[in-house]
User: Fold this.
Amino acid sequence: MKLARRGILALAALLSLPAAAAGDPAVGRDKADTCIGCHGIPFYSNAYPTYRVPKLGGQQPGYIVAALKAYRSGDRPHPTMHAQAASMTDQDMEDIAAFLTQAPRNKADK
Assistant:
């Protein structure tokens, strides 16, 4: 039940965000260096807990911002992502989302 409530809250947050990122993709490129370290590697899997790390290139900006805010607040649990998002400002998140929205989804998109 708690997980379903989080999903509903995340969806509500996502739907309340504007369709286009309010960030600067050029600034976001620099801020996303640590993101690309894991999320830019095809077929990358985390060692523990074992899961496939999702690629973020071409992802919707609202989803990225909502996810980062949920990691920052602790509503979305993942120790590494919480550590990454904890010091980000809302503008940092918008800038990163603006960059990742334009990043290629895969090698063929370059």
Summary: The chain is about 55% helix and 5% strand. Helices lie at 2-16, 25-31, 33-39, 61-73, 79-86, 90-102. The two ends are 42 Å apart (CA to CA).
